[in-house]
């Protein structure tokens, strides 16, 4: 069974909700998904190299990702994630810079095999968010099967 690690940052739990739905979509396709809050990542001593896919999410505040996700990206630079399947996501209000910046870092710095585009949702519960989140999870799972 393939394993996926989903790490999210979230201030008011919108991005957390999207993370849960992406994980659900992956589980529908038989992927074992582990969900972690970025603030617990260090404590849990998780090795991202033990996962076939790594998916990262953060909301946008003042045109940027929140600090814990920036810190995580610098920490993950030390792992070897090259060639692993990746995706990024985040809740946003109007501009939504964070998911794209995370995506680009995973693609260009970590050299991961990224799914098509970051997933940006205003909320997991609005405007077809549940279906889009599940589909994003399924797309990651399908990429793992290839
Ligand atoms: C002070 C503040 C600043 C924000 N700045 C942005 C912004 O620059 N661009 C944007 O798209 N959304 C912005 N938002 C909206 C949040 O991204 C949105 O509420 C999101 O759902 C929060 O996700 P979270 O619950 O995972 O923290 C801002 C919200 C607040 C409260």
Residue stretches low in confidence (pLDDT < 50, at least 5 long) are none
CATH class division: Alpha Beta
Give average pLDDT, whole number: 97
Any idea what the radius of gyration is?
Answer: 13 Å
SSE succession: EHEHEEEHEHEEH
Instruction: Tell me the distance between the termini.
Output: 13 Å
Percentage beta strand:
15-25%
Find the count of extended strands (DSSP E, 2+ residues).
8
Determine the fraction of residues in helical runs and give it as a percent range. 25-40%
The name of the CATH topology is Rossmann fold
Ligands bound to this protein structure = flavin mononucleotide
Class derived from helix and strand content: alpha/beta
Form type:
globular
How many domains in all? Answer: 1
The CATH homologous superfamily is termed Flavodoxin domain
Question: What is the subunit arrangement here?
Answer: single chain
Main sheet characteristics: 6 strands, parallel
Task: Describe this protein's structure.
The structure is a single chain. This protein is α/β, with parallel strands linked by helices. It has a single domain, classed as Rossmann fold (3-Layer(aba) Sandwich). The strands form 2 sheets. Strands 1, 2, 3, 6, 7 and 8 form a 6-stranded parallel sheet that branches. Helix 4 links the parallel strand 6 and strand 7. The longest helix has 17 residues. The two termini are 13 Å apart. Flavin mononucleotide (FMN) binds next to helix 1 and strand 4.
């Amino acid at each position: 069974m393939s394993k996926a690690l989903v790490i999210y940052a979230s201030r008011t739990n919108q991005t957390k909700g999207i993370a849960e739905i992406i994980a659900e979509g992956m589980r529908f396709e038989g992927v074992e998904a582990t969900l972690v809050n970025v603030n617990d990542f260090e404590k849990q001593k998780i090795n991202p190299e033990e996962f076939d896919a790594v998916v990262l999410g953060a909301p946008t505040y003042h045109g940027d990702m929140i600090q814990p996700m920036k810190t995580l990206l610098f920490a993950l630079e030390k792992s070897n994630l090259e060639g692993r399947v990746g995706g990024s996501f985040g809740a946003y209000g109007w501009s939504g810079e964070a998911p794209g910046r995370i995506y680009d870092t995973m693609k260009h710095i970590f050299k991961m095999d990224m799914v098509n585009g970051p997933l940006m949702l205003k909320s997991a519960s609005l405007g077809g968010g549940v279906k889009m989140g599940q589909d994003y999870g399924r797309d990651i799972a399908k990429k793992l099967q290839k």
